[in-house]
Write a structure and sequence with these properties.
138 residues; mainly alpha; flat; binds zinc ion
Length: 138
């Protein structure tokens, strides 16, 4: 049971490093999410909600829940991306663009370790999304 994994050790070192980065990022996001929720339901807000509930006004809770959900949604999306990247690390498909199958540049992965699309495909997607947004306003 000694460290006898010298074949492809450079690859596994890289994977280890990326996994560490992803897990750290995951911790940061979870902490942010918890802090935001904690901030939101404490202090004045909490008193407002409690006072409203005493009056039987549940609409305050509905509105607040929406805001919490929106904040959580943003964090959730990012966590999903990180989990997806971790899964890809495990099955060996990490760093390959989901759309065109080419390898995502190392520079891009350094900035965005949970990227699943290369720059070109990402830009294409953003353009399509933009067009769809513009069309939905017409
Ligand atoms: Zn691509």
């Amino acid at each position: 049971m000694d460290n006898d994994n010298n074949d492809a050790s450079s690859v596994s070192e890289r994977v280890k490093g990326i996994r560490k980065t992803l897990l750290q990022e995951r911790q940061v996001i979870l902490k942010e999410a918890k802090t935001e929720i904690g901030n939101f339901v404490k202090g004045d807000e909490k008193q407002l909600v409690e006072a409203a509930l005493d009056d039987g006004d549940w609409s305050v809770v509905d509105v607040n829940e929406d805001i919490i959900l929106q904040k959580l949604h943003h964090h959730k999306l990012k966590l999903n991306k990180i989990d997806e990247a971790l899964r890809k690390l495990n099955d060996g498909s990490y760093g390959v663009c989901d759309d065109c199958g080419i390898e995502i540049s190392e520079a891009r992965l350094k900035v965005l370790p949970y990227a699943v699309h290369c720059v070109e495909c990402k830009e294409k997607r953003e353009k399509i999304e933009q067009v769809e947004r513009e069309q939905s306003f017409q």
